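Q: What residues go here?
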């Protein structure tokens, strides 16, 4: 009996630390309509996802002792960001979050002067064996919200009218995936304030690879100075395992950005670039 008791004492701490906890729930607007593609994650960690088309989400927390004093952040364009203490959420079997609309200053309708010229900025090289992944095969529902981006060097003296953006998919075995295109103002060299005042989605079907072109004119964005543009992975069908873009190393003068999932920190890499192109007028 004494031996069994000692064995139980040794096993008990391991069971506690190995236990998985779940944070799950639904997200809705003030009219109780479900909100899709809302970013949900524990701030500055790799634990994050986006809500599905029914507004539902689920996160797996494997080490509660380290994260219980951290913050779960819920954010979406057009709504006020909400923060919750993780330790309080663990006690709730299910969570319903009602998002409140935020006050946005809408972009003015862009009237392009007749004497502008069209320019293209970025890297179009795709013939490389190096790749950067969106999808983590074993964590597909934990790293939705992962994002790959690039810095674009634009004039700081003249207005730049953003026209289109394209990125190249190197490998894709999903029947259908959806991306959200985000345009950022830079903050100390990293993606900072989001310049979009509305979501811009692009859907890719039938395991398509190659260039994906996105019209930016509906965003009515006029910018001065350098910006970053990212493609964020927000939805996928079942059974796929890999989704990636080509990565160019070295790419002198380029800046590459990567974010593992919703509410993760951006990582910045110099002299590296994914295959992304921006067309604009000035």
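A:
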């Amino acid at each position: 009996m004494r031996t069994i008791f000692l064995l139980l004492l040794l096993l008990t701490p391991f069971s506690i630390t190995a236990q998985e906890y779940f944070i799950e729930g639904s997200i809705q607007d003030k009219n109780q309509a479900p909100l899709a593609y809302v970013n949900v994650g524990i701030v500055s960690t790799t634990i994050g996802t986006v809500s599905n088309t029914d507004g539902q989400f689920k996160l797996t927390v494997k080490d509660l002792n380290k994260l219980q004093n951290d913050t779960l952040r819920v954010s979406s364009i057009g709504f006020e960001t909400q923060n919750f203490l993780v330790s309080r959420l663990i006690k709730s079997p299910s969570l319903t979050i009602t998002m409140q609309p935020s006050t946005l200053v809408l972009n003015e309708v862009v009237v392009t002067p007749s004497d502008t010229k069209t320019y293209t900025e970025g890297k179009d090289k795709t013939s490389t064996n190096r790749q950067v992944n969106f999808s983590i095969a074993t964590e597909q529902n934990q790293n939705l919200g992962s994002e790959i981006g690039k810095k674009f060097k634009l004039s700081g003296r003249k207005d730049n009218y953003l026209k289109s953006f394209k990125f190249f998919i190197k490998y894709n075995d999903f029947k259908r995936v959806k991306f959200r295109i985000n345009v950022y103002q830079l903050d100390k060299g990293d993606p900072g304030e989001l310049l979009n005042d509305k979501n811009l989605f692009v859907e890719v079907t039938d395991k398509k690879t190659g260039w994906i072109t996105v019209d930016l004119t509906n965003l009515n964005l006029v910018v001065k100075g350098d910006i970053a543009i990212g493609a964020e992975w927000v939805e996928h069908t079942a059974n796929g395992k890999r989704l990636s873009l080509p990565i160019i190393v070295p790419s002198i003068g380029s800046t590459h950005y990567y974010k593992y999932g919703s509410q993760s920190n951006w990582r910045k890499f110099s002299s590296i670039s994914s295959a992304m192109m921006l067309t604009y007028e000035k």
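A: Context that may help when evaluating the design: The domain at 2-98 is CATH 2.60.40.4130 (Immunoglobulin-like). The chain has two domains: 2-98, 118-281.
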